[in-house]
Recover the amino acids of this structure.
């Protein structure tokens, strides 16, 4: 599956913002969450979003054959 | 390249799927949160109750050793330091046959009294949490031989559980929701895509012709319907042309070389036509050997060019089975909106034009606006036709047949006219086709026969015995009871049969010639003379002349009009006269308009004539006037001028 950008600018920045918040929350606020399992889950989701931010590509969109990228 | 035809497709499946998936995920998350919350709270309460039971057991041991002190009121139980949370309020109550003892910690005396009052109502079946003054208390009761001990303790377990849920369960739920969202998106996209693919292939099947791969009739119907619908939305198509193409000799090719060859020819021709028809124009096969070209935004000039190129393309030879086959095509086209405002009638307009092209063998033709008026009038006349015969609006006019040698009237031809209440006097050209196509041919034939017999009889009674000839088409002779009808009418009006003559108009197909022959023979046996009308034109053959054994031949006026200049026509007339002599027939010439024509015809041996030189067709009262005046026409004064008005 070739990596080809399929996110629009808005989609990308929104995911970026969510990714940064979630990752930061997962790694810097361990006391609040108080559960390693949830921290890891949040970490994975955050990182996935950060990947989307940097590559402009979403694997789920790719599988679904959806693209929000302006043609 | 043909674009894939579009049918109305409704694929809102995607939104619905996403909506359904998200609803399910929210529902699942909510159930999951509630169950987890209850589970956590229950586990906490069970632990707490076990701890409290241990405290009560400890108190029980304490009481037994210090019983006297207890009921004297000087006893203080202090489990807090070892067993309970000192920040939470507690209440102990011990009762026995010797007395009662109560100790409250961080509870005011009023609340204590309230709790004690409620003790009586507590049983083993009661909930393990009781609420009082917005505080929740857990309680345990231990009964030993001597003592009945109650222990109440405020609990913050529910709040603590809520905090846990807020932290962990909600975060987990969000993640679950997120995953479900993605799943919903993926699933819905995949399903919607599949549905779209199936729809597209179904639409292609429904709107495509499998043989040529072109769009089919449904496609063009949809397209035209769409234009009509969009008219109301003011998304108008400024103009367009629709072409109907019909291959001329396809049936013959199909019959002679087989369907396979026919199919190959269709495929090859459709490929060649598709090369000429470029987008946005589209080629459509509507069935058999009929094609349509839909050309949006095409004006009439462009349409003419396209029509010509289509005719040319179809006129090329196609090599099939080692033969060079050329079928040729007729193309008719109509323009929207100048020919019709309704896109849905474009096909029928173009069809009319195509038939015109086929008839004229002109290759292509454009729809004629005049046809609309004619068609509208025809529709109106067809409706009136029903009443015409009932109201006797169909009348006979008469044109004399004259012996050119002495200008004596030897007979008359009855010609049908329609005295229409609104349109005035109509000649047969306006309505005879309507009659032939309305299924009233036989009624009409009988009507005319009856009228002719009526007139002939009344003239005869007035002393002007003269035969009336009427025109019948071979269709009338197919009427099995016509003979009986004629006999009956003749009998009723007491008219000898020789006062009626039948002129048989030649039809393009001589139908069932055997049947007609026998019908004519029977009619002739009655004594009615038979004439062949318009001889020399149409499909008449000499065999026809031989078979029908007519009494009279009427030479068509096309041979007479230019007989003075056209040697060929003179030869035809002359030989027809000879032919008639051999068959022992009389000859009548039609359309004599000048004296010189009359003289020439006389010299060729024709004696009986009909034409404007002698008289135009006239109404009955004028005819009677002439009959009264001696049945002789005075040609020194051009008789035609007398009846100029007719």
């Amino acid at each position: 599956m070739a990596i080809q950008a399929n996110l629009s600018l808005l989609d990308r920045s929104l995911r970026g913002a969510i990714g940064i918040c979630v990752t930061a929350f997962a790694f810097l606020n361990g006391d609040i969450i108080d559960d390693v399992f949830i921290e890891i889950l949040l970490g994975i989701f955050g990182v996935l979003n950060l990947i989307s931010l940097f590559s402009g590509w979403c694997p789920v969109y790719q599988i679904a054959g959806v693209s929000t990228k302006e043609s | 390249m043909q674009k894939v035809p579009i049918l109305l497709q409704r694929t809102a499946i995607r939104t619905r799927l996403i909506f359904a998936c998200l609803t399910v995920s929210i529902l699942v998350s909510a159930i999951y949160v509630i169950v987890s919350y209850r589970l956590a709270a229950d586990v906490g309460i069970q632990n707490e109750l076990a701890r409290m039971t241990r405290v009560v057991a400890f108190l029980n041991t304490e009481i037994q050793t210090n019983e006297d002190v207890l009921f004297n009121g000087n006893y203080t139980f202090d489990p807090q330091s070892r067993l309970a949370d000192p920040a939470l309020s507690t209440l102990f109550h011990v009762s026995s046959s010797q007395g009662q003892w109560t100790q409250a910690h961080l509870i005011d005396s009023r609340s204590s009294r309230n709790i004690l009052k409620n003790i009586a109502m507590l049983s083993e079946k009661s909930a393990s949490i009781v609420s009082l003054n917005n505080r929740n208390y857990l309680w345990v009761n231990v009964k030993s031989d001597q003592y009945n001990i109650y222990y109440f303790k405020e609990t913050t377990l529910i709040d603590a559980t809520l905090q846990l849920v807020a932290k962990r369960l909600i975060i987990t739920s969000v993640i679950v929701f997120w995953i479900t969202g993605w799943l919903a998106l993926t699933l819905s996209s995949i399903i919607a895509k599949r549905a779209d693919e199936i729809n597209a292939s179904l639409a292609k099947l429904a709107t495509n012709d499998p043989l040529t791969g072109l769009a089919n009739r449904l496609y063009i119907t949809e397209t035209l319907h769409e234009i009509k619908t969009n008219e109301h939305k003011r998304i108008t198509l400024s103009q367009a042309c629709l072409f109907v193409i019909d291959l001329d000799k396809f049936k013959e090719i199909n019959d002679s070389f087989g369907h396979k060859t026919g199919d190959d020819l269709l495929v090859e021709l459709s490929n060649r036509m598709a090369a000429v028809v470029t987008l946005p124009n589209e080629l459509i096969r509507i069935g058999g050997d009929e094609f349509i070209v839909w050309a949006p935004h095409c004006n009439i000039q462009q349409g003419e060019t396209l029509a010509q190129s289509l005719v040319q393309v179809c006129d090329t030879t196609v090599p099939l089975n080692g033969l060079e086959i050329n079928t040729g095509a007729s193309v008719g086209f109509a323009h929207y909106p100048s020919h019709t405002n309704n896109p849905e009638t474009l096909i029928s307009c173009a069809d009319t034009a195509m038939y015109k092209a086929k008839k004229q063998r002109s290759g292509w033709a454009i729809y004629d606006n005049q046809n609309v008026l004619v068609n509208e009038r025809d529709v109106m006349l067809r409706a009136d036709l029903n009443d015409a015969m009932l109201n006797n609006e169909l009348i006979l006019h008469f044109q004399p047949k004259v012996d050119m040698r002495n200008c004596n009237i030897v007979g008359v031809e009855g010609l049908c006219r329609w005295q229409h209440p609104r349109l005035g006097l109509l000649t047969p050209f306006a309505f005879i086709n309507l009659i032939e196509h309305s299924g009233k041919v036989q009624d009409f034939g009988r009507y005319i026969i009856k009228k002719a017999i009526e007139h002939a009889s009344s003239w005869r009674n007035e002393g002007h015995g003269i035969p009336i000839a009427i025109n019948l088409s071979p269709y009338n002779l197919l009427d099995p009871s016509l003979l009986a009808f004629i006999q009956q009418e003749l009998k009723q009006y007491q008219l000898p049969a020789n006062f009626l003559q039948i002129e048989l108009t030649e039809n393009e197909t001589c139908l069932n010639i055997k049947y007609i022959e026998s019908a004519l023979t029977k009619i002739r046996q009655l004594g009615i003379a038979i004439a062949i009308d318009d001889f020399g034109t149409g499909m008449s053959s000499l065999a026809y002349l031989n078979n029908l054994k007519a009494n009279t031949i009427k030479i068509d006026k096309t041979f007479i009009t230019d007989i003075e200049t056209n040697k060929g026509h003179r030869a035809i007339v002359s030989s027809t006269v000879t032919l008639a002599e051999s068959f022992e027939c009389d000859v009548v010439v039609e359309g004599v308009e000048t004296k010189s024509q009359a003289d020439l015809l006389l010299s060729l041996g024709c004696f009986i004539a009909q034409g404007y030189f002698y008289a135009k067709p006239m109404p009955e009262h004028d005819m009677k006037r002439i009959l009264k005046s001696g049945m002789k026409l005075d040609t020194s004064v051009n008789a035609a001028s007398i009846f100029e008005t007719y």
